[in-house]
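It would be a great kindness if you could assist me with a short task in structural biology. A protein sequence and the structure tokens that stand for its backbone fold form the material at issue. I should value your view on which stretches of the chain appear to form regular backbone elements. The record follows directly beneath this note.
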Amino acid sequence: MNIEQKPVVNHGSRKNSKPVIIVNHISVGTMRSMYNTFNNAANQASSHFGVGRDGSIVQYVSLDRAAWTQGRIQAPTAQIVKQLLGNPNTYGVSIEHEGYAGNGVDGNLTDEQFYASCWLHKHIQEAVLAMYGVKIPLNSHQVLGHYQIDSIGKPACPGRNFPWARLYAELSIAETMTLADYAERLEYLKSGTADRATAYAFASRIADLSSKFNDPTWGTAAKAKIMWMEPIMYDLGYTGEPTPEGIANRVSSIYKNSTVDKYQGEAMRKLMLGAKFAKEKGLL
């Protein structure tokens, strides 16, 4: 991924502090308005990075400087902020996520934006390590939301629908990789290959269960597990009274359609829907 450099006038000294936290924000504005705000000295506001809804990344402030975005501490909930106090701008790296009315102001990131943000967190970790000799752990103790610093003035930043669980799960994987290796993983996830693998794993799991229907040891359990899918079957185009055999046949039919260009898109959508539900039930 690439980072576009757009330096702004608003920033200050880290005052001998080293970055130890990454703070996530929502911009409540477009990427253009974000830059205009940060480059206006009268606003006294800035952030190190911005991540667009299209997955673009812009750097406004160098990591050796303090951006002006989370300096006020009010009823903090993050333990590290309670311990360090001071001005979090001096020991933080800030990421603004583009979000505005009707387009992610609630923190609901696009997939492109989410993956770009994940990569950026890893990039920051490696860049700070190279610059300061400090490795910021990519965990919930040191990857924060603005609301954890100022729970009064910014109680919802970076948005009530910000994907924290998904982010921390992905960052736990990034933690074990180099930036180059992690970038390759993200390209795989974005390519659709991962979705196809998940969809086909679901179809394969249902086929495996159905092959055990007549097994004296596993038959009853296999049928019971397939019936766990009953609540989602209407959305998968199933009609009639659900039975283990009927559910297995329907999933098999969807899988066959996924190999035909004309029906592939809708079939993949249904397989992914089924896979998500199967994961929630522990079938995958």
In short: The first strand starts at residue 3 and ends at 5.
